[in-house]
Design a protein that fits this description.
The chain is mainly alpha-helical. The protein has 2 domains: 72 residues, Winged helix-like DNA-binding domain superfamily/Winged helix DNA-binding domain (Arc Repressor Mutant, subunit A, Orthogonal Bundle); 142 residues, Four Helix Bundle (Hemerythrin (Met), subunit A) (Up-down Bundle), CATH 1.20.120. It contains 10 helices and 3 strands. A 3-stranded antiparallel β-sheet has the order 1-3-2. Helix 9 runs antiparallel to helix 10. The longest helix is centred in the C-terminal third of the chain and has 26 residues. The radius of gyration is 18 Å and the shape is elongated. 33% of the residues are buried.
Length: 226
């Protein structure tokens, strides 16, 4: 079994959420390869936790489609094909387009103001090249769109789909120039929402996720041939 790079070690007190993110990122970036065994004891020792949170993390990774596990057998890294990844992003594009359209129609004045202010503030992260902080902002930005749609069922669908794609969406920010491009794409969405232009907001959100898909798939494909 390939050894996990030491620089990825997480400190004592790791939560299940942190463990899921760390292992997911290692899968997406190629530190862990498709078919590689994920031993519970080794992972527990690595993250300095008991096997219980490791099992929970592996269950969540399985729900995300990144880990496969058969009864009475160790978990292994799943092989996420480019075609399946594309199909998930295609669904995400449609869902985000709906959210942006509804947000343009339904967001309150305060919600619009908060969206715009936080978007403008994120420019500092772009200029600083703070990809981790920008990734966190990006998650909140899209959450604001989902909440702004004011539709509980759509919110449930879009957040579930986003959870499956989260590691791939984070990977895009490792690509040169992606932070600035993401900011510009967000700017088009925000401008349309502030104007109450539902059609433009929908089109901008769809185009944004389509671009994210291309960036993420390029990264995921590139790591498979390293």
């Amino acid at each position: 079994m390939k050894q996990i790079r030491r620089r990825e070690v997480i400190r004592t007190g790791t939560t299940v959420e942190q463990m899921v993110r760390a292992v997911a990122d290692m899968i997406v970036t190629g530190v862990l390869s498709p078919g590689e065994r994920l031993d519970e004891i080794s992972l527990a020792a690595r993250f300095d936790v008991s096997r219980t949170p490791v099992r929970e993390a592996l269950r969540e990774l399985g729900a995300m489609g990144l880990v496969e596990r058969e009864p009475n057998r160790s978990a292994v890294v799943a092989n996420v094909t480019e075609s399946y990844l594309h199909s998930m992003f295609e669904a995400m594009s449609e869902l985000e387009a709906i959210c942006a359209r509804l947000a343009a129609e339904r967001m309150t004045v305060d919600e619009r103001r908060t969206l715009e202010l936080e978007h403008r503030a994120s420019a500092k992260l772009v200029h600083a090249g703070a990809d981790e902080d920008y990734a966190a902002h990006n998650t909140e930005f899209h959450s604001q769109l989902y909440r702004g749609a004011h539709n509980d069922h759509i919110y449930e669908l879009v957040t579930q789909t986003r959870a499956r794609l989260a590691p791939f969406r984070r990977a895009q920010f490792r690509l040169p120039g992606r932070l600035a491009k993401s900011y510009d794409e967000h700017d088009v969405i925000v401008t349309a929402i502030m104007r109450g232009d539902a059609v433009a907001a929908s089109q901008a959100a769809y185009a944004h996720v389509a671009i994210v898909s291309d960036a993420s798939i390029v990264f995921a494909t590139a790591k498979s041939i390293r």
